[in-house]
Automatic annotation (TrEMBL):
HAMAP family: G6P_isomerase. NCBIfam families: PRK00179.1. It comes from the Bacteria. Catalyzes the reversible isomerization of glucose-6-phosphate to fructose-6-phosphate. The active site is at E340 (proton donor), H371, K500. CDD domains: SIS_PGI_1 (cd05015), SIS_PGI_2 (cd05016). Pathway: Carbohydrate biosynthesis; gluconeogenesis; Carbohydrate degradation; glycolysis; D-glyceraldehyde 3-phosphate and glycerone phosphate from D-glucose: step 2/4. It is an enzyme of class 5 (isomerase). The keyword Cytoplasm applies. This is Glucose-6-phosphate isomerase.
């Protein structure tokens, strides 16, 4: 624990240092920025200095991140609690053979991908039709990674969306599917049901609802369903022809799955060519992650900055702030990616962690967040590291002036967080407004910004499919590196199971089929009130 303790000591020693002081070195920005492909990652507005960076790199070396990464890419079963390989990267590196238990898994991956391409083209070109004509709308029914990934990606790549309209249903709340289907035509709608086992209760409940909705107007609704599942028996029982069932192996985790069949709705929306470009962007980031030295490696550095802030500076949350409206769903996607992956309390050997695991991840796109929660970030009592991302150019040339205003706001916020405003500066402002004495001092204190609030910025030219793929892969590998350093399994999610089990047990209690004996007093009271209100 020597390096760990050295980093704790370092964090303690610099906690009162103003980040702005580090910019007295005119080479600060260049020295604490790294480039790879289309990306510039600037972490100079943090309290990381050269000594800290060296220690963090030593920590990555001590944990042998590179060896663990190679084990992942080569098909080793690094998801030890489930005995599974972790090969989502194989879905975007289609030219590389990968072996699991001595078997090359890539021929099947390539075959499934080819079937996806054929089906997507058939839908887009009107060769696959609904029973009332060409498909106009696609409804993807899934939850978690089977929803967040394609929903986020379809919005992100809206400028490339030239296929049928896409809609996403995830919540078991009937309002979600009701409102989604309300304005659609059953005769020209394709429903994609995304559930690996075809047993996910929220997904299958919504799928049955969609099937009933379609059956009211369509003779054979199952003809307009496709499935993203490995259960041939259950999809057949639902009535879905095998030609429209796209399976994937258990080494593809839900929150890492949009690169394969789970991305079918995205492929239909933007077309196989642009979908392939998103895979290419992710594959390029994969190659960079595997080859670049730690001190030049964007995913490693992003992870080390996160570890520094969370584990050593004790900042419990981080805000993801894309200044890109089309990345509006990225913070929610990263909530699952990071918090489900690294929200653990025991290490790989089952022992309690001696430090905190992953942080709380949250955020909104700029500039909306500026008029919502930035007040807390700037002047609140807790430090919240911020992760800005912004494109140099938008997709709307006639609105370039608005994009420049967007970029200006992004850069201004990171500068303001770092610089702050001193009491002397605030007092001078109040003096210019004609105030003096106690009232001047009182008003000035309300206008003080402590500053030294850390942030990073990820800059890219434009949000293209290739750039988008690189961003998502960057964050996937960041989560992986943080998990390796923390010594946890980032690829299981047992924390989601208990509530699901209890929900299944509570359903008959709510319906009156079960007395609920043995439930706690609060749950019994709530059940009784709900039953009374429902009559």
């Amino acid at each position: 624990m020597t390096i760990w303790q050295d980093l704790l000591d370092k964090a303690q020693s610099v906690q009162n240092r103003q980040i702005a002081e580090l910019f007295e070195n005119e080479n600060r920005a260049a020295g604490f920025s790294r480039e790879s492909g289309p990306f510039l990652f600037d972490f100079s507005k943090t309290n990381i200095d050269a000594e800290t960076l060296d220690l963090l790199v030593e920590l990555a070396e001590e944990k042998d991140v590179a060896a663990r990464a190679e084990a992942m890419f080569s098909g080793a079963k690094i998801n030890e609690t489930e005995g599974r390989a972790v090969l989502h990267a194989a879905l975007r590196n289609l030219d590389t053979d990968v072996f699991v238990d001595g078997e090359n898994v890539m021929p099947e991956v390539r075959a499934t991908y080819a079937r996806m391409v054929d089906f997507a083209r058939d839908v887009r070109e009107g060769k696959f039709t609904g029973q009332g004509g060409a498909i106009t709308d696609v409804v993807n029914i899934g939850i978690g990674g089977s929803d967040l990934g394609p929903a986020m990606a379809t919005l992100a790549l809206a400028p490339y969306h030239d296929g049928p309209r896409c809609h996403f249903v995830s919540n078991v709340d009937g309002a979600h599917i009701h409102d989604t289907l309300a304005d659609l035509d059953p005769e020209t709608t394709l429903v994609i049901v995304a559930s690996k086992t075809f047993t996910t209760i929220e997904t299958m409940t919504n799928a049955e609802t969609a099937k009933r909705w379609m059956a009211a107007k369509v003779a054979d609704p199952a003809q307009q369903f496709a499935a993203l599942s490995t259960s041939a028996e259950k999809t057949a029982a639902f009535g879905i022809d095998a030609s429209r069932v796209f399976g994937f192996a258990d080494w593809v985790g839900g929150r890492y799955s949009m690169w394969g069949p789970i991305g079918l709705s995205l492929m239909i929306a933007i077309g196989p060519e642009d979908f392939a470009d998103s895979l290419k962007g992710a594959a390029v980031m994969d190659a960079h992650f595997r080859a670049a030295p730690y001190a030049e490696n964007l995913p490693v550095l992003l992870a080390l900055v996160g570890i520094w802030h969370n584990q050593f500076c004790d900042y419990a949350t981080r805000a993801v702030l894309p200044y890109d409206q089309r990345l509006a769903r990225l913070p929610a996607y990263l909530q699952q990616l990071e918090m489900e992956s690294n929200g653990k309390r025991v290490s790989m050997d089952g022992k309690d962690l001696p430090y905190h695991s992953g942080p709380v991840v949250w955020g909104e796109p700029g500039t909306n967040g500026q008029h919502a929660f930035y007040q807390l970030i700037h002047q609140g009592t807790r430090v919240i590291p911020c992760e800005f991302m912004v494109a140099a150019e938008g997709h709307e040339p006639d609105l370039a002036h608005q994009h420049l205003l967007l970029v200006a706001n992004c850069l201004a916020q990171s500068e303001a967080l770092m610089r702050g405003r001193s009491l002397d500066e605030a007092t001078a402002i109040m003096r210019k407004k004609g105030l003096d004495g106690a009232e001047r001092d009182r008003q000035a204190r309300h206008r003080v910004f402590p500053g030294s609030r850390p942030s990073t910025t990820l800059l890219y030219p434009k949000l293209t499919p290739e750039v988008f793929g690189g961003i998502v892969a960057l964050y996937e590998h960041r989560v992986f590196v943080e998990g390796v350093i923390l010594g946890i399994n980032s690829f299981d999610q047992w924390g989601v199971e208990l509530g699901k089990e209890l929900a299944l047990a509570l359903a008959p209690v709510l319906s009156g089929e079960d007395s609920g004996e043995g439930k706690d007093g609060s749950t019994r009271q709530l059940v009784a009130r709900i039953r009374a209100l429902r009559g």
